[in-house]
Amino acid sequence: MITARRGRPAIPRPTLALAIGLVVLTSLTYWPVVRNDFVMFDDQRYITENPRIAQGLTADNLRWAFTTRHMGNWHPVTWVSFLIDGRLYGLEPAGYHATNLLFHIATTLLVFLTLGGMTGARWRSGLVAALFALHPLHVESVAWAAERKDVLAGFFWLLTMAAYLRYVRRPGVARYLPVLACLAAGLMSKALLVTLPFALLLMDYWPLGRWRSPGGRGGGRLSAAGRLLLEKTPLLALSAAASVVAYYAQHQAGAVAVVPENTPAVRVGSALFSYLLYLGKTSWPVDLAPLYPYHVFREPAWLSAGALAAVTALCAGAARTKPYLITGWLWFLGTLVPMIGLVQIGDQGIADRYTYIPLIGIFLAAVWWAAGLERLAPTLRRPIAASCVLLLLPLMWLSFRQVGYWRNSVALFSHIVAVTPGNFKAMVLLGKELAHEGRLDEANKNFLAAIRMQPDFPDLNANVGLNLYRQGRRAEAVGYLLEEARIQPADPRAHAVLGSILGELGRSEEAKLHNREAARLARTRPP
């Protein structure tokens, strides 16, 4: 045992060793992230093109952080963290990536210590924390600078649970207030914490065992559940208020997508199928990308619903002897609800970053189930333990490789196009980045592929035409710019560029027509 000081409890050496091991493994897996650049995938709107970030944390910027709905979110704690980074690092990406990694490491340690404090199972808790730290589905939340809100929300989620454990051990108002404060800070980082009060109710069931009433069965048990629900009322009220604010901010920013064929019934079916997709990606985490094409899943909803119901029934049936199964499974199902697509936010159907907190439930259930196998066959104890440890090695390698895809915009978008064939948006983004680097032929290859998918999409033909013009291929550029003028007849830009190029080609009469049209449209176009 490590010597205690000033009356504090000693830290067991195995606990300290496991904590150090988690820090080392996570750092080794993610260390390349500090060499990564920003990517043109929200990083510019959050950081590089946001003048307030470079100014750092000032009184005016602090007021802005708590009042702005920039990017369709109200998350002042996230903005404050970026402002602090701006003061410390300017616009150097290494500092922002390092901060994300530090929060991920801190959350990993909180998973280990909090779950260990609740269960008394040190090694199992350590394995759950290791899976959380190293699983490739979590790379997106760490390696994407703009996704600071994920690692912040995860940190405050676990900090809330740690404060809750402290409260449970000796209930009182003084110990309840930190729970409320941590939840509030988390909700001001990202609204996904709205489900945290329900997760605490699951922890009350197992491993804390607070659903059992001293009064015995029947009414006593109901009164215990009612007491626990009443205890969560301030937390539920805070979550409800945050849900309203989050929806209002997204709606005002136009991020609540309206897809005509995406009826409520279709959304429910797609949400149910998405659960299965996430389970598949958890089991086989390859071909991961931060931008999956949006699909309205047409599979019969009853198939997905039946599969999920069957797993739920099995977990519920085993609840008497294996309560961790139903706790972990309901954690996974419940914490994904805000991101599962019942309300369509943005143009993504599923996203790896959405699993940052939900997968804790799957890891918890799987680890405790595997550990329980030794009771059936004690001779399997060492092989099971060895298998669990060896599982971490491929996860580390896959995550290490996934971090590398985030090294710059071209690498990221090239990876997305490679692993998600037919990804229209990724093709366009890759084309823009290649053009920015002067790789015009490669850029046009992607733009032309996108045009074949959506021929009338704005700006694609203009991008091809301008790239051809930059290569000196003026005559070829004219055809694409004429097509752009047909697609966007009220946009003066295509006519202005056409006028310039046609003038250079000596087609003066045509040039004059397009110049006049550009001038007319510029005068009549609303500001």
Description:
The protein has 527 residues and is an all-alpha fold. The chain is elongated. The model is unreliable at 1-5 and 215-219 (pLDDT under 50). The chain has 2 domains: 13-404, no CATH class; 422-524, Alpha Horseshoe (Serine Threonine Protein Phosphatase 5, Tetratricopeptide repeat). The longest helix has 27 residues, at 93-119. It has 25 helices and no strands.
- Give helix % range: 55-70%
Tell me about the largest β-sheet: none
Q: What's the SSE pattern?
A: HHHHHHHHHHHHHHHHHHHHHHHHH
- The number of helical elements comes to 25
- According to DSSP, the number of beta strands is 0
Share of β-strand residues = under 5%
Averaged pLDDT? 90
Q: Which segments are poorly predicted (pLDDT under 50) over 5 or more consecutive residues?
A: 1-5, 215-219
What structural category do the secondary elements indicate?
mainly alpha
Task: Measure the end-to-end span.
Answer: 71 Å
Gyration radius, rounded: 27 Å
Query: What is the number of independent domains?
Result: 2
